[in-house]
Specification:
Elements lengths: L13 H6 L23 E5 L5 H14 L5 E3 L9 H13 L3 E5 L25 H17 L4 E4 L2 H12 L8 E4 L8 H10 L3 E3 L6 H8 L6 E6 L13 H8 L2 E5 L15 H24 L25
Parallel strand pairs: 1-2, 1-8, 2-3, 3-4, 4-5, 5-6, 6-7, 7-8
Amino acid sequence: MTDASATAARRPGEQALTALGLSAPAPDPADASAHSFPGGGRWRTEIPSCEGPEALAVVLKEASRLDVPIHRISQGSGVWMLTDAEITEMVEATAERDIELCLFTGPRGTWDIGGSTRTDSRGAGLRARGHDAVAGCVEDAVRATELGVQCLLVADEGVLWTLHRARAAGIIPADTTLKVSALIGPVNPAAYAVYERLGADSVNVPSDLTLDHLTEIRRASGAPMDMYIEAPDDLGGYVRMYEVAELIRRGAPLYLKFGLSKAPGIYPYGHHMRELTLATAKERVRRGRLALDLLARHGADGDMAPLGSRLPGDLQRFEISS
């Protein structure tokens, strides 16, 4: 059912432009997403690129100072870049605040010896190259979930399907959520629906999709969507702050992901990048506050999902053969 408030938000500059005879056509109710998160709400928040316990502490402190609600915190370097003690510290800190922690799994093509990712075509990209790379991702998944991590970030369709099967078989906990990375994000409704059926519980789409693209996807799938409201430079550097209310109206259920443009890449993270990583972690929270303030000014901040909610609801899956 479409939430009535999904069509009630004020659009940027609406009153002033109407007074000047420059009003825009009224939003089409048929464009609105008919989906929401289980338990209520059309949007959740995510702070990405939180690369370890120290960065996490900065994020949590700044979120408290600026009153930024957080549903999920994600990391991009990978499970293999953290010690057991570091993972445990992050699990405990997020669990104390009822925030979902999402860690990236395993080897990726951009970091191994394959040359195709360094060509102009970027062939194969982030995907796991070969059996051993898939095995490394599974190893990361088992290790992370044994330490209490409840969400895993994947950048390969085969890894996604394998982890979904592992979840169904009890190799990793059944309530583990699987999140598709923006680095392989689908750009059409057919592909989005395939990711859902492969086991994705949320799917990060590229931030350059149009509003009409989001509506098309929502007519094919109700799986939660993640989108960078501000994308890192290596993902295009797009800033869509003023579109937040409309992105929610079209794309719900939607994770608002507060990235940061004009900042150097930090993956894979190490202590040689400590100052940059802590500074950018803090600024991502501030960007979140700016986006939430825009939502409030536009009267579109009332449909946030309850804090502590993390499950995606009932989704469509391919049948797992025995």
